[in-house]
Amino acid sequence: MRIGLITPEPGHPLLADTTALLAAEHTVEALDPVAPGEVPLPLAEVYLLKSRTPHALGLARDLERRGAAVVNSAAATELCQDRTAMAELALRAGLPFAATRTHDSLGVWAAGALLDGPLVVKSRRSRRGDLVARVNDTAVLRELARRWPNEPIVVQDYAPNSGWDHKLWAIGDQVFSALRRSELSPEGRGPTRPLPLAELPSGWAALVREVGAVFALDVYGVDIIDTGGGTPLIVDINAFPGVRGQAGAPEALAALALRRAAGRA
Question: Rounded to two decimals, what is the model's pTM?
Fold first, then answer.
């Protein structure tokens, strides 16, 4: 089988370890999404899309038009970059997702906003270095508006929680879990702690798999906070995250790639 990697970082630990597992019996080729030119025939049986840049999405869409299998699809990957569209789909599907309001400009909204409790303000478009902040008072809001005046944003009510995010990842049907101190906690983002899957509240692993079905994702992350008594609130969904340090993740990704490749063949 031939497996393609759409990524500018084929040395990423998850991809490198997956490649090592596959390389003995299969051909793994990395495609730089910014390299010019069309991918020559024959195409690989499957491509793993580990990039969310416009160039990478364009390359994935072109490969899909030519009949290639891409994991995750360009459409599913792009949907997870738009926090408004993400929230609309999740809530329409009945998932316990944070209620989300959208504003075209942080500066314009902040000028007339009335705060009656803590809020979470995020860039509408999810990307590296985007805005994610807890707003407790107007002074914080004014400072954010000064720094990000034209930023399209989404606003969510802050849900009281322990200050730790449940980081859940899925590769196919296999779910992995960890705890990470939230970037919204007073101490700021902290280390990742192991969390055995058996210690998750009842039903959370099934909820993660439901997210994958709703969003048509095969490799994805779901950030959940416990709002009390094991009640989950989904605050973010990511297409093809790093899944670093999770035992069995490279094996799961290699198996998924081979299943999709065999189906295409």
Answer: 0.93
Tokens of 86: 């993400």
Nearest to 130 by CA among 139, 140, 120: 120
Q: Read off the pLDDT of residues 112-123 as tens digits, 9 standing for 90 and up.
A: 998 988 999 999
Give the CA angle between residues 76, 236, 184 to the nearest 5°.
155
Tokens representing 206? 């099934």
Residues in contact with 43: Cβ distance below 8 Å, sequence separation at least 6, in sequence order: 4, 63, 66, 67, 68
- C-alpha of 1 from chain center: 27
Look at the alpha carbons of 96, 81, 188, 204 in this order and tell me if their dihedral is positive or negative: positive
Instruction: Check pLDDT > 70 for residue 265.
Output: no
Burial class (CB in 10 A: 0-12, 13-18, 19+), 168: buried
